[in-house]
Amino acid sequence: MAQPRADLHAILLDLCDNVYFQPPNGTKIQYPCIVYKRDFADTAFANNGPYRSMKRYQVIVIDRDPDSAIPDQVAQLQLCTFNRFYTADNLNHDVYNLFF
Questions:
Q1: How are the residues of the chain apportioned to helix, strand and coil, as percentages rounded to the nearest 5?
Q2: pTM assigned to the model
Q3: Each residue of 13-50: pLDDT tens digit?
Q4: Domain 5-99 adopts which CATH fold?
């Protein structure tokens, strides 16, 4: 059973002071930060009916520091996998997929 998104938000706030869920365009973002959004759901079936559904979130750690400890902390969360890394506007982006 999927857990409430507010629980995930609280966990991410323990890792970073600036956490944003699906920030609208024009939002003033403070760095370092974690930006996350829901991007997928996985449902398991038995007897032609769903018995388990988990939401997946794309979690992006954005930091000016390429050696930030925040990505390592995110990587330690349960059911979290590293997706990719990229830089944009002199900011480092570590992208993770997290089932919660």
A1: 15, 50, 35
A2: 0.90
A3: 999 999 999 999 999 999 999 999 999 998 999 999 99
A4: STM4215-like (3.30.2000)
